[in-house]
Automatic annotation (TrEMBL), chain A:
Domain of life where this protein originates: Bacteria
Gene: oppC
Bilayer topology: Multi-pass membrane protein
Family as reported in the entry's similarity comment: Belongs to the binding-protein-dependent transport system permease family.
Provenance organism: Pseudolysinimonas kribbensis
Protein name, as recorded: Peptide ABC transporter permease
Keyword set, alphabetical order: Cell membrane, Membrane, Transmembrane, Transmembrane helix, Transport
Any Pfam family hit: OppC_N
Main location: membrane
UniProtKB/TrEMBL annotation, chain B:
Source species, domain of life: Bacteria
InterPro entries: BPD_transp_1_N, MetI-like, MetI-like_sf
Membrane topology field: Multi-pass membrane protein
Keyword Ion transport attributed: no
UniProt-listed Gene3D superfamilies: MetI-like (1.10.3720.10)
Gene name linked to the record: oppB
Membrane-spanning parts: 89-112, 124-148, 168-187, 226-251, 271-297
Localization: Cell membrane
Organism in which the protein naturally occurs: Pseudolysinimonas kribbensis
CDD domains: TM_PBP2 (cd06261)
ABC transmembrane type-1 domain: residues covered: 85-290
Keywords: Cell membrane, Membrane, Transmembrane, Transmembrane helix, Transport
Family assignment from sequence similarity: Belongs to the binding-protein-dependent transport system permease family.
Protein name (record): Peptide ABC transporter permease
Automatic annotation (TrEMBL), chain C:
Domain of life: Bacteria
Name of one Pfam family that matches: oligo_HPY
Organism, scientific name: Pseudolysinimonas kribbensis
Residue span, ABC transporter domain: 5-253
Keyword ATP-binding attributed: yes
Molecular function GO terms recorded: ATP binding
UniProt protein name: Dipeptide/oligopeptide/nickel ABC transporter ATP-binding protein
UniProtKB/TrEMBL annotation, chain D:
PROSITE patterns: ABC_TRANSPORTER_2
Membrane topology: Peripheral membrane protein
Organism encoding this protein: Pseudolysinimonas kribbensis
Entry protein name: ABC transporter ATP-binding protein
UniProt domain ABC transporter: residue ranges: 7-258
Amino acid sequence: MTTTNLPSGPSAAPIRSSRRGLVPPGRLALRRYVRNPAAVAGAVVLLVMVLAVVFGPMLSPYSPDVGELITARSAPSAAHWLGTDAIGRDQLARVFAGGRVSLTVGFLAALLAVVVGTLVGTLSGWFGGVADAVISRIIDILLSVPPVLVIIVFAGILGPSVPMLIIVFAALLWPQSARIARGVVLSLREQEFVQAARVLGSRTAYIVVRHLIPGVLPAVVVAATILVADAVLSEAAVSFLGAGVQPPQASWGNMLNDSKSITVLSSMPWLWLPPGIAIFATVLSTMAIGDGVRDAIDTRRNA
Amino acid sequence: MFLIIAVGLFVLVRLAPGDPAETLVPIDAAPGQREELVKAAREQLGLDKPVPVQFVLWFGSLLKGDLGYSFSTHQAVGQLLLDRLGPTVLLMGSALVLGLLIAIPVGIIAAVRRDTFVDAAAGTVSVIALAIPSFFLAMLGIYVFAVKLRVLPSAGMYFSGESDVGDLLYHLILPVSVLALAVAAAFTRYIRSGMLEQLGQDYIRAIVAKGAGPFRATMHAFRNSLIPLVTVLALYIPAFLSGAVVVEQIFSWPGMGQMAVNALIVRDYPVITGFGLYVAVLVLICNLLADVLYTVVDPRVRTAR
Amino acid sequence: MSELLRVDDLKVHFSQRGFSGRKRVIRAVDGVSLSIDTNEALGIIGESGCGKSTTGRAIVHLEDPTEGRISYRGADVTHPDAAARRAFNEKVQFVFQDPMSSLNPRMTVESIIAEPLRAFGAWDRVTGPARVVELLERVGLPAQFASRYPHEFSGGQRQRIGIARALALDPELLVLDEPVSALDVSVQAQVLNLLMDLRRQQGLAYIMISHDLDVIRHVTDRIAVMYLGVVVETGPADEVLDHPLHPYTAALVSATPPSSPDEHRERIRLQGELPSASNPPSGCRFRTRCWRATEVCAEVVPPLEPVGDGRSRACHHPLDLGMPTIRTESAA
Amino acid sequence: MTAAPVLSLEGVTLDLKTGDDYVRILRDVTFDVAAGEIIGIVGESGSGKSMTALSILQLLPPKARLTAARIGFDGADLAGLRPAELRKVRGRRIGMVFQDPMTTLDPVVQVGRQIDEAYRIHHPRAGRAEAREKSLAMLRLVGVPDAQNRAKQYPHQWSGGMRQRAVIAMALVNDPEVILADEPTTALDATIQAQVLDALMRARDELGVAVVLITHDLGVISQVASRVVVMYAGGVVEIAGTRELFADSRHPYSAALIHSRPGAHRRGEPLVAIPGRPPLMSDLPAGCPFAPRCASPYKSERCVTQRPALEPSVDGRLSACHYRDEPQEVIA
């Protein structure tokens, strides 16, 4: 055994200090998260985004779908903070409305994927055997299937629709969370405290509630943030390609699609910069939250 | 596996709304003739036969490389795919190579100089690059370099119809840069974390204890970190294709992505189906490739008793 | 003393897929018979891969026996249903090797020690905490530790928490899997003293699994020496270690460093390595490394035969009883 | 010591950054290594014994601050060397053997090549054949059978004991003056440990290399080392000949350590347990670091207030105890 600060062996107790005396691990993790500026900024930005798309349309005097041709293509002004588009719709109202769709698709797809993935991954890891081998193989293959291309094929044949987006994203994203959950369960299953629980006479339900879920949850939260980022980006991409949310309904992706002509691109940046920045900010802040959570629950770090 | 995908695609096409025979016949055909024409088209497409027979016919021709004809351009789909493959491979290949050429040294340096300014900068840039949608980045690129600075073309492969290599390279710069940035961002992170894991291993300390310099130790770590990397790389290719599709669309690059999106807009089923098959085959090949590469690169697997 | 637990011809085989994807059967335990009486301390000793831990884990049903029979106070408990298993665990508890991994880092010491009480409905808000404190004190830890988390303790303290947890249900038998091998020498002594006290004071029986001859000899009465999934020799601890009958036991004793520079051990150096448990040698499993092996060793499996004085050995060519392995010289 | 020291540490002090603060991990570590001797460094986890070895070759974590007075080697001070000069000592004149043979070899490079590499780093003009010849010679010296063919295998095809021999061969291939062996047998079974210790002793006998053997196992020390450095809480508490140390140690910690081993007692006797646990390096007591756990009858106020230095006793033995001249009795 050495005196390194590395986790060198089972008997090497982590550094303790009186400050950390009786703090439960959960609160320690929260403390570490709050001390991470990028993660806090991410949480704030995402919160602002969500509040904006939820309440923004209520506060905005304009309809996102109806425009006045007289004011079409006007630059940002006091009346229209982000200007108007080719048929005179208020761009700010459209950014809010588009955000509702984009975030709904992103969060719903990610939620569905996390729930399914965690369940499948946990069961697969816990029970093992042939089913686990088959599921792992399916996970491996699905992980390399690009959602955007599948949507193009589906939309090309069946026609684009929002529910289809959510279902296809969820169907292709769940393996990510399944793989993570499975990995955690596999390592937990080897942990002696889970084995000990069985010898101590604990029933399976108790083991799952007390040992398994608290162990899997943090990793799943991290996985969920990655999935949200993935789903938001994918939705934007397919809507941009015209295979996702269809006009006149706004989404950040199809708003960019409307603006890819060289005239709009060169002379009306207010039409494409805001939705682009909105996607970017959402994804970046989600990733920052994920990184923050991951670092906060990483018990190997002493901070 | 391939059969399952083929069946799935076939079912999907059958589920599609609308009758392909109807769409084949011009709407403005005379009312009396129209039914005749639709019937003829249906026979021609084999749609009057029972569904299983249709599948067998379809699958048979599929195996012969016959994917049917495009509704809109009436070209053979197989030929169309082949024609479009070249530009896409060129775009993806150059971006992949360029991206890795950036990612490998940057990832290694970030790992070796952990927690320094270089590491932090590389990390920040790659997170930003991962969070920014490629089409938005492409639009920014066009806005800055084509519209404002007027130094790069905004679309296409050539100015004229001529195949001039210099001109081609000139047109490649923007789309390849956009794609390569995404590759570089993703792989810088992979390489950095792989290198960090290896650099923390005992054998690295042992190599330093032998008297090796930092370069030699780094090379040992890099060789070991390559093992998971090759499989990740193989599995990354399909995902990368979707990035290419988006970029092709915005730069009017005459590749498969542009073809697929155009087909999507006009509901050109045979082309979409052909594209779907192509994607499925790509996914399968890449998975197989990942397995094979893994056994080739890792002596622990290669020499297993 | 009466017989508490009995293991007859226990086999635990695992199937494992190698790198090449081919399936192999690992015969981790391949025909082990043991018995332990009330208040007895039995040691199982052997090197890694000999199946000693798997034997202990199979006894508490952490592994599923492939063949054989385990009986507790005469009743068959080889393949218990859930209820029978819980009833068995109430009487037979297990202590793990790694005191870090065997305690859930997210639980307080109180909830860790309370887990078996909760499992058996013996927990209530009033008497529960008092019981936890009593258990902590029994293993020599102060009461205020109850509200803390495992990461705040040293290895030895954690191992004592693990023992307190195992004692919560007042078991009759403890199976201890390398309970001190992760601990420093000075701390190891604390835990070993505790185990000896518990046995004296509470009439506990235990099976101690260890690779450390000195530890086993110190705290157990009787030992079983295992090699490659089988027991090669059993008998009273001192006798077996001072006068081994099986060549493997002798080699093991010889390879163990002496406790002082004045002690010299018979120099027996085994050649080669432990054969694979998926493809053990025919006949006697030790023959490939044994200097006394002859043809018969390759052909006939030597049975574990009693030879009097409570000793048994499984060898065609046992060593003489009179052969000491350790002699002490006075400092020159 | 009659022979001149090949390596001498004088006041080696090491600070490691943990979190925001530097913590002193080694305090004034001082000892000599004589040519061709096997010297043991013994201590529990956290005592600083491994860090001492790593300090000699400066294989330290990135945020370590070495403030050594001097690490004397062949007229030079290793602590003051530039990296390029240090590399000429590492592996060439001072070899290193690590604890875990399963992880110290590069898994994707053939074993033989890794030993060749060690040679070729320091002999850039040597051809492949010459390097391989040296490697094979060393592999044979440490007792690897069929070295020629086995050198072409990858580490995963070698067992733990064999790998450790390969690591030793790698440390020996440049004919160094000193080998630092950091717990070289801790990860190995007893019978394999004996083989590896034999290999180290053969290297000493045939090549005349001095071995610094770091271990927590007093048994190993008593078997192979001629002198022992006892470490506690980052400092040296006693340096003595092995026999003297075991027979009559001059520091209560060494005495307690020796007597806490089960092998030093009769079966079933209570062992000498050192109460409590080693202090945190970030929070060392002001006086003797061992004072809070010390059971010596001589312990006094002075032990709590004043830190004893490593000084000779009346009979010339080095001990860091205020009462080094009193007989050390061990109280159970």
